[in-house]
C-alpha cells in the first residue's frame, strides 16, 4: 500500500472517448490514474506498475472485454482480490467474481468517492 504522500493509483479501463476526461477529473480529485482502452492493455498495465487501490472497468470493449479481463485477473494469484468496480451505462445487476461494486456512467464523483472510500482515500482531500 502506498504511503500517505503517494496518491492512490486507479487503473481505469474503458474504450470510451471520454476516458481521458474521466482520468483528468480523478487526478484533479487527488488520485493517480493509469488508463487502458481494453482488457489486454489493462493486464499489461497491472504487470508494469505499482498495484492500484482499485480498478474501474468497462465491460464492453474491443480486443479483450471486461469479462475476459476479470477471468484473467482472478486466475492470477497476485491480482486476485484487487477491488474492481464495473463502469456501466446499463443497469446490469449480475454478480461477477472480483467485482465489489457497480458505478453508473456518467461517473458522479460524490458516489464514486463514497464507493471507493473503504479501499483508499485520495491524498490532500
Question: How can the largest sheet be summarized?
Answer: 5 strands, parallel
| Secondary structure: number of strands | 5
As laid out across the biggest beta sheet, the strand order is 2-1-3-4-5
String of helices and strands: EHEHEHEEH
Question: What distance separates the N and C termini?
Answer: 18 Å
Count up the helices.
4
Kindly report the oligomeric state of this protein.
single chain
User: Ranges with pLDDT <50 over ≥5 residues?
Assistant: none
Strand content of the residues, in percent?
A: 15-25%
Computed over alpha carbons, the radius of gyration is: 13 Å
Provide the residue-averaged pLDDT. 82
- What structural category arises from helix and sheet content? alpha/beta
- Which of globular, elongated, flat, extended, rod-shaped describes the shape? globular
Which bin fits the share of residues in helices? Answer: 25-40%
